[in-house]
Amino acid sequence: ADGATVVFLKKYGKGEPTDLMVEALYQDIKDLEYKRVIAIGGGSIIDIAKIIAQETISPVVDLFEKKIPTKKTKELIIIPTTCGTGSEVTNVSVVEFPSLHSKLGLQMDALFPDKAILIGELLTSLPYKTFALTSIDALAHAIEALLSPKANPYTDMYARSAISGIVENLQETRKTKKLPQDMQKSLICANMAGVAFSI
């Protein structure tokens, strides 16, 4: 797009995000002036986008150890391409720190995206295994929210709806091992699990 800088995560590594990936990406964008981050992808891309939207990004370890404050200065728009964690509506980012032999999670209101856009058509080429694994991930989040000591009528409503829809889609595909007819439903159910988890 005219005026947009496109960044592909695969240039920096694959799998779950590491601080090394985030730092390398930061080196490539630190001199750019940008007012908006649009993340199109799965959990790793979403987690990194939440960091890239902050005023201070590096050193990433200081951000996660809360030595530097989180302050979102860029509009953050998330377009998920898996039906997993509902991360497009949570205030959590998880990054692996190989030097610490640990994964750290950062949970701050500054990590909440400004907009989430759910486009079922983006999931039509998703491998069945990825669909199944991310659906189970969303199911686990919904069950956690439902059973949480902090659960309330709102979390119950979102969690129960998410569980029902996820189970229906998994049952539909159990024998065929093909994607369900309604991938928008899968996205919405993952989103509802994320809402329940956030509340």
Describe the protein in words.
The protein has helices at 19-29, 43-52, 60-64, 128-147, 153-173, 183-198, and strands at 36-41, 75-80, 92-97, 102-107, 115-116. The strands form 2 sheets. The protein has a 3-stranded parallel sheet, covered by helices on one side. A two-stranded antiparallel ribbon has the order 3-4. Helix 4 packs antiparallel against helix 5, helix 4 (128-147) runs parallel beside helix 6 and helix 5 (153-173) runs antiparallel to helix 6. It is built from 6 helices and 5 strands, in the order H-E-H-H-E-E-E-E-H-H-H. 42% of the residues lie in helices and 13% in strands. A hairpin with a 4-residue loop joins strand 3 and strand 4 (102-107). By secondary structure, the chain is α/β, with parallel strands linked by helices. The mean pLDDT is 93.
Short précis:
The longest helix is centred in the last third of the chain and has 21 residues, at 153-173.
Strand line-up of the largest beta sheet = 1-2-5
**Strand content bin:** 5-15%
* Main beta-sheet strand count, sense and barrel state: 3 strands, parallel
Counting H and I runs of at least 4 residues, what is the number of helices?
6
- Spatial gap, N to C terminus: 35 Å
Structural class: alpha/beta
Radius of gyration: 17 Å
Low-confidence stretches: none
Helix content: 40-55%
Sketch the topology as an H/E string, one letter per element.
HEHHEEEEHHH
Q: What is the total tally of β strands?
A: 5
Shape: globular
* Nearest-integer average pLDDT: 93
Quickly list its features.
about 200 residues; 3-stranded parallel beta sheet; single chain; globular; alpha/beta; 5 strands; about 40% helix
